[in-house]
Amino acid sequence: xxxxxxxxxxxxxxxxxxxxxxxxxxxxxxxxxxxxxxxxxxxxxxxxxxxxxxxxxxxxxxxxxxxxxxxxxxxxxxxxxxxxxxxxxxxxxxxxxxxxxxxxxxxxxxxxxxxxxxxxxxxxxxxxxxxxxxxxxxxxxxxxxxxxxxxxxxxxxxxxxxxxxxxxxxxxxxxxxxxxxxxxxxxxxxxxxxxxxxxxxxxxxxxxxxxxxxxxxxxxxxxxxxxxxxxxxxxxxxxxxxxxxxxxxxxxxxxxxxxxxxxxxxxxxxxxxxxxxxxxxxxxxxxxxxxxxxxxxxxxxxxxxxxxxxxxxxxxxxxxxxxxxxxxxxxxxxxxxxxxxxxxxxxxxxxxxxxxxxxxxxxxxxxxxxxxxxxxxxxxxxxxxxxxxxxxxxxxxxxxxxxxxxxxxxxxxxxxxxxxxxxxxxxxxxxxxxxxxxxxxxxxxxxxxxxxxxxxxxxxxxxxxxxx
Length: 468
Description:
Blueprint: E1 2-8, E2 13-20, E3 25-29, H1 36-45, E4 48-53, H2 65-72, E5 75-79, E6 94-96, E7 101-104, E8 107-113, E9 122-128, E10 137-141, H3 154-157, H4 165-179, E11 187-190, E12 208-209, H5 210-216, H6 225-233, H7 242-252, H8 272-276, E13 281-284, H9 288-293, E14 300-301, H10 308-315, E15 322-325, H11 329-338, E16 344-348, E17 361-362, H12 364-372, E18 375-378, H13 382-386, E19 394-395, E20 414-417, H14 422-433, E21 439-442, H15 445-451, H16 462-467
Parallel strand pairs: 3-4, 4-5, 5-6, 10-11, 13-14, 13-15, 15-16, 17-21, 18-19, 18-20, 20-21
Antiparallel strand pairs: 1-2, 2-3, 7-8, 8-9, 9-10, 11-12
Helix pairs in contact: 4-6
């Protein structure tokens, strides 16, 4: 049996190729849109991709399963479990039910319905029939992670399907209890690692065993369904706004919406003056400190770092053209394709990104007097806000800032703040684009504020945080 794990750090996502070296066949599970990597490995290993499948309808990235099956001639096999509204809506070759099996030579993938994260979610028990008659591993997708479990709130909080959050949590509890009867040695090969928004505490360790998770995963430590439901729903991060779009496209089309791929495909290189004169959306991918020192008026700063795709998905609309300042065109284009952002009007080098714009930075010790006459905007998550905040701050998570600009007084200076200064730098650029000229970034965020011994309001504000 051949096994290859592919890990995409931009979305902390894992996909897998399982092959039988005797017959030269392979199956790919949970492919993302960078499908060249699967084709290349298959060719390198002398394997033919015979089947393409996935564990569920994904929310955090655009599936590459349909494209990969079309390119390779593989059979596309997808879950037929769950509610009618959340079944795959596009044509595919085989509908999978609990108890079904995908066979490639000596290797078997047995389908187990494991709902809770989503109604249609399935896992695959992998058996190397040449060596054993029991499964060696389970491809668990977003069901069981290392140290965590899939969140059951996304249909309600991301796709706006009311009344599904608590129900999903109870179903997930049942799936966990049922799955616990599998052999203790069973390896767990999950669909995400640390940094994914599909869980709240996923380990960076790439795999585990069921026996280990039953002993040390917090979910298996719960003594009752009620305790599990309370704990799994508490403290989940806000799902990025683009999750709803991914769910719809992956369910209805199995990939990107037909439409313009963007002028970037034709090598269009506009001048900054051309672009900025039209008030087009321009994303400057330079580090925040470079953007703060000098940038083009109206540009939005989303640094090309580990959080790039998260904030691109929050802040770049899918229905309009946008432009980029970047010197890493291929990588930016590849990452944006993972979440279906294709409407790139043109690319400009970062050497042309400097201009008359500036975001002043202020140290914590100097900010006390400054914020007395200003509006202090805390752009951290609801969970972070609930653990403590600077007295007098207004809480608007970064992802919601653009739609809540009207709640920020226009006649006062603004100081923006996050945990350590990264997200607030993005927020400052959004405020500047919206025409707010007196905007300052609190350098080092609340971390620097606390280190300076300045006061923090530690009273619980769970209700306000939830509303935010």
